[in-house]
Amino acid sequence: MHLPVALAILLGVVQGITEFLPISSDGHLALAQLLFGGEADLATTVVLHLGTFAATLLVLRKRVAAAVREGVRGLLQPSLMRETPGGRDAFVVILASIPTALVALTLKKPVEEWSSSPTIVGVCLLLSAVAVGSTHVAPRGQELVPSPLGAVLVGFAQGAAVLPGLSRSAMTIASLLWLGVRADRAFELSFLMSLPAVFGAIVLEGRHGFDSAGGGGALLLGTLVSFGVGILALLALRRVLVGGKLAYFTVYLVPLAVATVAWGYARP
Predict the structure, then answer these.
(1) What InterPro entries does this protein's entry cite (predicted)?
(2) Using CA atoms, how far apart are residues 44 and 142, in angstroms rounded to an integer?
(3) How far apart are the two ends of the chain, measured CA to CA in Å?
């Protein structure tokens, strides 16, 4: 499909903001489709995700490099998974990725139908608000990583975020904070955990999406915008989280959730 430049820029901005801030990119996409009709072009969605994926890699480049390096070495020398920071990060990501994949694949089919229900989207947005709101009273932990069981629980929370309106970053960050993980480490681990899931989705969906890609120049521009805006959103989120102000996002999420649920009940 032909993608206008102005629309490509707008999509890039929306992708960069909602992919990282705890307000649910899938929820906003579902609302946009319900309000304006039609469906997002698959190629456009995949390529825009490449921009935010690259933004995550750049912002967390040191942590990613250490996790990959020590994780690979840990396959031959398992003790490194406990003794090195990168190894511990890799171990947490591996443990979390297993339940994430299981839950996401199980819910994939029903989610396609639920995305067209404002009531379900609104309820999930409200759950996102509960998650971020709960961080206001979460304990100020000092742990650098969660326990193995904790990592699995966070993985389930991440998998559940396939539901439209349930923010992945809200669910994982809130879970990590409640498990006693330090705020700055909760930020890092949340987005380290996201990389395998996002990469897998790009590979799986990209096989079908790129065949229909059109408007390459505009699509590239949108991707660059999502990359740049994504970097800014990540840095802003880290500052908000470390400052203990993540709960402020409820000011946006609660009215949006209530209005969406009300719309769902009002629809014929």
Answers:
(1) UppP
(2) 40
(3) 32
